[in-house]
Amino acid sequence: MAKTLGIIRGVLVPAKQNMLPVIGVLSGALVWGLIWYPYRMLQDAGLSGAMATLISYLWAMVCGAFMLPRVWRERGDFGWWGVLLVLSAGWANLGYVLGMLHGEVMRVLLLFYLAPVWTILFSFWMLGERLNRYGYLILALSLCGALVMLWKPDLGLPFPQNISEWLGLSAGMGFALSNVTSRRATHLSVEAKSFSLWLGTAGLTLPFLMWQGGAAGQLLAISMQSWVVLAIIGGVICATSFAVQYGVTHLTANRAVVLFLFELVFASVSSYFLANEAMDVRDIIGAVLIVSASLLSGKLYSDKSLG
Q: Which residue ranges does the record assign to the EamA domain (predicted)?
């Protein structure tokens, strides 16, 4: 019993010490587990996912305009790490939306949520983070949870088979790289990192819309109700991005990506209540695995490896 209590204490104490960063990351998982619903409403109203993404992220920049003085002061410190953050975060968001709109949803999600694999590689190469003996088991547990929830035997193994699936895979790589880069760029403030995310997403989406054509017609056709929804989404993205960047700055990259998998749990529950999509046994088992891995994620590294 004493040994069991010691294990439980070892798991919970680090989580308590890092409560604010954990809450920050989980808030991002919650928002992205729910945000599909208003984007779906906008698409049903005739607004493409790319246009909705551009407008909502531009509005996030407007809501975060109070951060501009500090971001401007740090412009000289931005450097290559800042550029990498802009590009990787921007592609993670845009590639995810494009893949989801034009491909098999479950396949794209599965490929995107291979992100823990890329995070292991990026964090080792860029941060020198070395997993302890529990780390690989915890990451395997989280990946198994994602696979159980997302994989369908009739769709085959998770290897890209078309452009949409390559988009999903590369977006997952961008997501992992952006988290590791945010952790690495300790010289940048949370405000600068948040603004980089919005700038990257809007900046990469704009040329895609220009290439796609018809953007002006879409803008003129947006109803007042849709503008209100877009403004709300932008405000939520602004607040959540700040919380998430605080979280990934203060947590190890591998622990953060395990917590981000909570998005699948939130998405599964929200689809059940908002879209009447049934939760089956696989969803419940996968959710339990992801929650278990998240609770144990504080043991990803030994105390020595964390310095």
A: 22-150, 165-296
Of 198, 179, 178, 181, residue with least CA distance to 238: 198
Residues in the chain: 307
Q: Which of 171, 182, 191, 189 is nearest to 252 (CA)?
A: 182
Asked if pLDDT for residue 235 goes beyond 90, the answer is yes
- Calpha distance 115→176 (Å, rounded): 6
User: What would the pLDDT profile of 40-71 be if each residue is shown by its tens digit?
Assistant: 889 888 888 889 999 999 999 999 988 888 88
State how far the alpha carbon of 155 is from the alpha carbons of 22, 172, 256, in Å.
34, 19, 29
Block residue for tokens 């998430």:
244
Q: Compute CA 302 distance to the chain's CA centroid, rounded to the nearest angstrom.
A: 26
The 8 Å CB, 24+ separation contacts for 217-226 are 218/46, 218/47, 218/48, 218/51, 219/51, 221/46, 221/47, 222/47, 223/45, 225/45, 226/42, 226/45, 226/47
Rounded distance between C-alpha atoms, residue 261 and residue 143, angstroms: 9
The pair of structure tokens assigned to 41 is 């409403």
pTM, entire model: 0.82
Alpha-carbon distance 171 to 29, whole Å?
A: 16
Over the stretch 97-129, which tens digit does the pLDDT of each residue have?
888 777 777 778 878 888 888 988 898 899 888
